[in-house]
Write a structure and sequence with these properties.
This is Extracellular solute-binding protein family 1. It comes from Chloroflexus aurantiacus (strain ATCC 29366 / DSM 635 / J-10-fl). Strand 4 and strand 5 form a beta hairpin. The protein is 48% helix and 13% strand. The protein is globular and about 70 Å long.
């Protein structure tokens, strides 16, 4: 299924498969603050039997091993629920397969959805409200990091629980920093880094001071923080697009200048690999990559807060867990038991230590295991210390279908082709505005 699927196409596909159930779920979300799907049957098995549920995940490599270890730990810890883990590919591939599964009525029971995908499925009624289920398993939402939890709340109701949540960090190669005679820290401002950058570049072109990701690698996510740093934004909360705001354009001009004018940065198709391989001396990248980068790099890795310009700016990112509306009530409750386990104070710490993702529970940071881990891994402590300074991304990227790619392709035109930011972002602004219209219609229908 094509990645450019629109909101209306999604709804048409779902209604073609099992429209009555979808519309019923949509109606329930419109005016109720509690939330099991009215179409869910009461039971699927005899009382006392093991409830089997299917979990769709999106991680491979070391992250996939950690995700599967979490499932195994849950299954081993009790005999009431058995989770079957099924890997579906990237965040985008998982969302596409979920869309197809809704049409075919072959959906999982619990699913990992990224920050740019969960909202569309919420609008379509494909994921259920979680508050009643949370009460049944004694899950206390007050212990979750507010900046992460609140992103999954609509009209006071929880739909998306933080799990693999991240923020960008500034990564730097300590050996190259020392070779250049720079202080062992991240730059405090972009102006300071611009002074350092010429010392980090190799004249033969084999090393750049900094790397930007390309449009396929979430450049719009990392640029979100830079836009805020320059005093701009992608959009307002009411979906009014602000890509032509003077400060947004200043940020775009800065990105272009780092590559084409100052020539100390490059656009990288594989940012983490270029950093590990020494082709770039520094980068902004996800906290979720921290454990893997440190394990693979042959040099000491330094990290710091993102640089400031006019302001400090840093977005949240990553993925959370949702329960499928079509799942029977018994399976929904079983899925909530898994979510409560995977995001408990203890297991949130285990997941964070294994992956580099943020601990999503407040109490996790005070556990003896995490205190010791922070002492031994100051880089990860830096990521956690930055979290209170972060905020949820603008609607243009996370709520508008394909907003990430629309912005990212515009940035590539500016950085690679050297096109004028004002002209490119005027087109991007129009494209985002048009793409937002069906979202606004759906919001009105669902939330009033």
């Amino acid at each position: 299924m094509k990645q450019t699927l629109t909101r209306r196409e999604l709804l048409r596909l779902m209604m073609a498969g099992s429209g009555a159930a979808v519309l019923a779920a949509c109606g329930a979300q419109s005016g109720q603050s509690t939330g099991q799907s009215p179409t869910a049957p009461a039971v699927v098995s005899q009382p006392g039997s093991t409830v089997k549920i299917t979990y769709w995940g999106s991680f491979s490599g070391n992250l996939g091993e950690a995700e599967q270890a979490m499932v195994k730990a849950f299954n081993d810890s009790q005999d009431e629920v058995e989770v079957e883990y099924q890997f579906q590919g990237s965040y985008e591939e998982t969302a596409q397969k979920f869309t197809a599964a809704l049409q075919a009525n072959t959906t999982p029971d619990v699913i990992l959805l990224s920050d740019v995908w969960w909202f569309g499925f919420y609008l379509a009624g494909a994921i259920t409200a979680l508050d009643d289920l949370a009460r049944q398993v004694n899950l206390d939402f007050s212990d979750y990091e507010p900046v992460l939890l609140n992103e999954g709340v609509r009209k006071g109701v929880h739909y998306w629980i933080p799990f693999a949540r991240s923020t960008p960090l500034f990564y730097y190669n300590k050996d190259i920093w020392a070779e250049a005679g720079l202080p062992d820290r991240a730059p405090e401002t972009w102006a300071e880094f611009a002074e350092w950058a010429p010392k980090l570049v190799k004249s033969d072109g084999s090393r750049a001071a900094f790397g930007h990701p390309n449009g396929a690698s979430y450049i719009a996510w990392l640029f979100q923080g830079v836009v805020w740093q320059f005093g701009g934004q992608y959009s307002q909360p009411d979906f009014t697009m602000t890509m032509t705001d003077p400060n947004t354009l200043r940020a775009a001009q800065f990105y272009q200048d780092t590559v084409l004018k100052e020539k100390w940065a490059i656009l990288s198709p594989n940012l983490n690999q270029d950093f590990i391989g020494g082709a770039i001396a520094s980068m902004m990248a996800s906290t979720g990559a921290l454990a893997g980068i440190q394990a693979t790099a042959t040099f000491p890795v330094g990290v710091g807060f993102l640089p400031r310009e006019t302001n400090f700016g840093c977005p949240t990112g990553g993925a959370g867990l949702a329960i499928v509306s079509r799942a029977p009530a018994e399976k929904q409750l079983a899925a909530m038991k898994y979510i409560a386990f995977a995001t408990s104070s203890t297991n949130a710490g285990m997941w964070a230590r294994s992956t580099g993702y943020m601990p999503v529970r407040i109490s996790t940071k005070q556990t003896p295991e995490m205190v010791e881990f922070f002492n031994q891994n100051p880089n990860f402590k830096t990521a956690v210390d930055q979290l209170p300074k972060t905020r949820a991304q603008d609607a243009a990227r996370v709520f508008v279908r394909n907003g990430d790619q629309i912005i990212g392709k515009g940035l590539e035109r500016i950085i690679v082709n050297g096109e004028t930011p004002s002209a490119v972002f005027a087109e991007v602004n129009n494209e985002l505005t048009q793409a937002a219209q069906p979202i606004l219609e759906d919001l009105k229908a669902v939330e009033g």
